[in-house]
C-alpha cells in the first residue's frame, strides 16, 4: 500500500481535495483485505430510515458522488470547505452506477460535517457546543453537566446501517456505516470529548466570551494541523492508522464495551494538546480567529472554518515547524486508537454484501 489517498489512482480527481475524516477511513479500510475485495454494489436512493427519530438538517442534500463532473482544480493544501471539490455531483441517485464498498466508506465520511446535523433544534443547551452540529459530534462534562450526544450518534448510525443491510440495501448500509465511522472517529478526538481544562478555567480571569473563543480556536487549530499533515503525506500518521486498524480488525471484543476506554484515552490527551497549542502559539494563533462573531447565527463550525487558512499560516510557518514534534507524537497515539476502533467497526461488516 503505497498511496496516501490524494494520489490513489483508483479514485477520480473530482472527489479531491480530501479531508481528515476521509484519510482516517481510507487508511483504516486499506488494512482490511476482506473489505478491499468486496464487489461493487448498485447505487440506490436514500431509503429514509429513521427520518422521524433522527431528523437531518433542513439544508442537507444527499449528493451522489458516483456521478461526477470535473469542474475545477482546487489547491489541496488551502482547501477547508468540505462542500467544495474538484467535481460537481449528482443530486439524485444515478441508476446503473455501482461502487465498491470501501470507496463508499471513504467518500461519505465527511457527510456528518456538512448540513446533515446543522440548524436543528435538539436541546436547549446546544449553544454550549456551538449548535446542533457540535451537539451530535461531541460529548463532554462541564461542572457536572453533560453536553452533547456523540455516542448516541454513533449507535444510531450503526443501527441504520444494520437496518439497510437487513433490507438488502447494501449501498445505504455502507453509506450509513461511513457516517457511523465519522462519529466513532470524533469520539477519539480529544477536543470532542473534553471542552476545556478545569485548571485553565480556574486560572484565567477572562470573560466567558474569551474562553469560548480560545476553546474554539485551539480545537480548530488542532484540526487544521492534523489535516495538513495528512495532505503532506506524513508517514507516521499513515502508519499509526494502518497499525491500529490491523489490530482492531482481529480484536475479539465488543466495540460498545471498548468505547468507554477509547473515550477515556482521548480525554486524557486533551490537556496536553490544549496547553501545548496555547503556550506555543498563543496570541498569534488566537488572532487568526479574530473574525469570529459570538452573536452570529451561523453554526460555530462554519465560523471557525473561515479562520482555518490563517491558523494554518501560523502553525506551519517556517520558524514554527520545529515545534510540531510534540503534536506529531501525541497525534500518532490518537490515530492508532482511532484506526483500531475503525478497524473493529469496518471488519465486523466485511463479510456483508
Ligand atoms: Zn464531526
Task: Please outline the helices and strands.
Elements: H1 20-30, H2 33-36, E1 41-42, E2 64-70, E3 87-90, E4 98-99, H3 101-107, H4 132-137, E5 140-142, E6 145-147, H5 150-166, H6 170-186, H7 190-193, H8 198-203, H9 208-231, H10 235-250, H11 255-268, H12 270-287, H13 300-305, H14 308-315, H15 325-347
Antiparallel strand pairs: 1-4, 2-3, 5-6
Helix pairs in contact: 1-3, 1-10, 1-15, 3-6, 5-6, 6-15, 9-12, 9-14, 10-15, 11-15, 12-14
Bound molecules: zinc ion.
What does this structure look like?
The protein is mainly alpha-helical. The chain has one domain (13-347). It is built from 15 helices and six strands. It has helices at 20-30, 33-36, 101-107, 132-137, 150-166, 170-186, 190-193, 198-203, 208-231, 235-250, 255-268, 270-287, 300-305, 308-315, 325-347, and strands at residues 41-42, 64-70, 87-90, 98-99, 140-142, 145-147. The longest helix is centred in the middle third of the chain and has 24 residues, at 208-231. The radius of gyration is 19 Å and the shape is globular. Zinc ion (ZN) binds next to helix 6.
Amino acid at each position: 500500500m503505497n498511496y496516501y489517498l490524494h494520489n490513489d489512482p483508483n479514485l477520480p480527481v473530482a472527489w479531491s481535495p480530501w479531508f481528515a475524516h476521509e484519510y482516517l477511513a481510507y487508511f483504516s479500510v486499506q488494512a482490511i483485505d476482506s473489505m478491499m475485495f468486496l464487489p461493487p454494489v448498485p447505487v440506490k436512493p436514500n431509503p429514509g430510515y429513521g427520518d422521524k427519530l433522527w431528523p437531518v438538517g433542513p439544508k442537507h442534500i444527499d449528493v451522489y458522488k458516483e456521478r461526477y463532473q470535473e469542474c475545477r482544480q482546487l489547491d489541496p493544501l488551502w482547501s477547508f470547505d468540505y462542500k467544495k471539490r474538484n467535481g460537481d455531483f449528482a443530486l439524485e441517485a444515478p441508476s446503473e452506477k455501482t461502487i465498491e464498498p470501501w470507496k463508499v466508506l471513504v467518500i461519505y465520511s465527511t457527510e456528518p460535517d456538512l448540513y446533515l446535523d446543522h440548524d436543528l433544534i435538539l436541546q436547549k443547551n446546544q449553544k454550549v457546543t456551538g449548535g446542533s452540529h457540535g451537539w451530535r459530534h461531541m460529548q463532554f462534562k462541564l461542572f457536572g453537566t453533560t453536553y452533547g450526544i456523540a455516542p448516541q450518534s454513533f449507535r444510531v448510525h450503526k443501527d441504520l446501517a444494520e437496518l439497510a443491510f437487513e433490507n438488502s440495501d447494501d449501498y445505504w448500509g455502507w453509506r450509513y456505516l461511513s457516517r457511523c465511522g465519522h462519529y466513532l472517529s470524533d469520539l477519539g478526538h480529544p477536543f470532542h470529548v473534553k471542552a476545556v481544562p478545569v485548571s485553565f478555567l480556574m486560572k484565567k480571569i477572562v470573560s466567558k466570551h474569551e474562553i469560548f473563543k480560545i476553546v474554539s480556536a485551539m480545537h480548530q487549530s488542532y484540526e487544521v494541523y492534523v489535516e495538513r499533515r495528512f495532505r503532506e503525506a506524513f508517514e507516521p500518521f499513515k502508519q499509526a492508522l494502518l497499525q491500529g486498524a490491523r489490530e482492531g480488525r482481529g480484536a475479539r471484543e465488543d466495540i460498545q464495551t471498548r468505547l468507554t476506554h477509547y473515550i477515556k484515552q482521548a480525554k486524557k490527551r486533551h490537556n496536553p494538546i490544549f496547553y501545548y497549542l496555547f503556550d506555543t502559539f498563543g496570541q498569534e494563533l488566537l488572532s487568526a480567529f479574530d473574525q469570529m462573531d459570538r452573536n452570529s447565527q451561523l453554526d460555530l463550525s462554519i465560523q471557525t472554518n473561515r479562520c482555518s487558512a490563517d491558523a494554518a499560516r501560523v502553525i506551519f510557518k517556517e520558524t514554527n515547524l520545529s515545534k510540531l514534534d510534540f503534536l506529531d507524537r501525541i497525534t500518532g497515539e490518537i490515530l492508532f486508537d482511532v484506526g483500531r476502533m475503525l478497524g473493529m467497526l469496518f471488519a465486523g461488516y466485511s463479510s456483508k454484501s
